[in-house]
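User: Structure please.
Assistant: Input sequence and predicted structure:
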Amino acid sequence: MIGKFCIVRSINAGVFAGTLTEENGQTVILENAIRIWYWEGAASLSQLAMEGTSQPTKCKFPCAVDSVKLFEVIEIIPCREAAETNIKAVPTWEC
């Protein structure tokens, strides 16, 4: 999955979407990573990875960071191209 846009769920840091650049056991590095803080319009992370969200204005995705190193990763789901485009198009959430 290296080089693919993926949704990654970790035990303590939560869920991120980004390009997987490194994987070593339960530790990964994502580039251009978006924290998936809250979403609507998809029943699960699996559906989000396959279809994106049908409610982009109701999602809370803060700005992307250049990279993030995640520990204790328990799930990596590669995204379909349309879902990647959809996730990246969600307006940046600002409180």
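The first strand starts at residue 5 and ends at 10.
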